[in-house]
Amino acid sequence: MQLNDKLTGKDRMRFGFQHSYSALPSTFYARVAPTPVTDPRLLVLNRSLAVDLGLEPNALEPEAAALFSGNQMPEDADPIAMAYAGHQFGVFVPSLGDGRAILLGELRGRDGVLRDLQLKGAGRTPFSRGGDGRAVVGPMLREYLVSEAMHAAIGMRCVRCSSMSSPASTPRPVRRTCPRSRS
Q: Is residue 177 part of a domain?
């Protein structure tokens, strides 16, 4: 990760992303932009994962809320929502996709493994159906704690969470089948 002197305007952080998915034909993804939030705040930064990904936690932390809320994009990000097909409710559906996950790019970790870096809950994508593309803090915190326990305690390779951020205020609930509080 290269940290420029200023992280505003044209001078933004570079993560060293690779972009193998956006090199595929456009039927495999949709180009999207995260939906900004008002005054994001950092809830947690997974410093050990940042190090594993070759990022510098001390340089990353001051901008993490803006970066991982989607309010600010790393210079080399190429945000896309992945399209896929599969079985849903027992029926094959040929056109599914990430309804609240936005892939910024891939990072090769210190171990040589290429990993996706996504924003989860950063707003609507063409695959969001009726939802708002946001995520509720409680389930996200549970996912973070469980994945870190699986990784650290039993050494299981799994999806890991690099950070969690939230708007400082909660102007409206997250849209699901029934509205839910953001907390």
A: no
Helix (H) or strand (E) holding 138: helix 137-154
Kindly tell me if the per-residue pLDDT of 7 is higher than 50. Answer: no
For residue 86, the cross-strand partners are: 93
Number of domains present in the structure of the chain: 1
Residue 81 lies in a domain: yes
Full domain range(s) for residue 157 = 26-87+94-167
In this predicted model, what pLDDT tens digit does every residue of 81-132 receive, in sequence order? 999 999 989 999 888 999 989 999 999 999 999 999 999 989 999 999 888 8
Q: How far is it, in rounded angstroms, from Cα 59 to Cα 152?
A: 24
- For 8-29, write each residue's pLDDT tens digit: 444 578 999 999 999 999 999 9
**Cα–Cα dist 126/86, whole Å:** 17
pTM of the model: 0.83
Q: Is residue 14, in this structure, part of any structural domain at all?
A: no
Helix-then-strand count for the chain, H and E: 3, 7
Per-residue pLDDT band at 182 (split at 50, 70, 90): low
SS3 52: helix
Task: Give the whole-angstrom CA distance, residue 113 versus residue 70.
Answer: 24
Domain contains 104: yes
CA distances, 29 to each of 23, 33, 114 (Å):
10, 13, 19
